[in-house]
Write a structure and sequence with these properties.
alpha+beta, Tetrahydropterin Synthase, Chain A, four-stranded antiparallel sheet, 4 helices, 4 strands, 41% helix
């Protein structure tokens, strides 16, 4: 019986000490803003239907080869959608070849500068790429396209 008492006592002391340390060292709760409760949720009111953006999916995925010593080492497959003003889908599809050409050039430049190497899905890298794509889209369709969304991305290594 004494053989089991000491290990049990040590386990209980260790668990109790760990719980106590966790409670003592946890960060204080964030202060509530003036006039708000600490647990109040911020609720955004939805836009009326006529003001909600329209999402236009590009017809095909983009395929970007990654070269090493002049040979294809990997392939990036990416799907894009465009956030646009309501009712502009037909106008976007009318200029889709121009958009695709411009987007491909940006994606190839990004690939050639090493943008798809390493941890290419890192937030800062993708944010920079989205900004470049949006800037190009705004030049083609000013005041129509409001954002470029990367809806799917993958890399296949050979």
């Amino acid at each position: 019986m004494k053989r089991f008492l000491l290990p049990l006592l040590l386990i209980l002391l260790g668990a109790g000490g760990g719980i106590g340390a966790g409670l003592f060292l946890r960060p204080p709760p964030a202060p509530a803003a003036e006039g708000e409760e600490a647990h109040a949720e911020v609720k955004e009111e939805p836009l009326p239907p006529e003001e909600q953006p329209e999402y236009v999916k590009m017809s095909n995925q983009f395929i970007i080869p990654l070269l090493t010593d002049g040979k294809i080492d990997s392939i990036i497959v990416m799907a894009l959608s465009l956030e646009a003003k309501p009712g502009s889908a037909d106008a976007i599809y009318a200029v889709e070849p121009k958009l695709r050409d411009t987007f491909l050039q940006i994606l190839f430049d990004h690939a050639n500068s090493g943008g798809f190497r390493g941890s290419f899905t890192e937030s800062t890298a993708l944010t920079r790429l989205r900004e470049q794509l949006l800037e190009a889209a705004e030049k083609i369709m000013p005041e129509v396209i409001t954002d470029v969304l990367i809806t799917d991305i993958g890399r296949q290594d050979s």
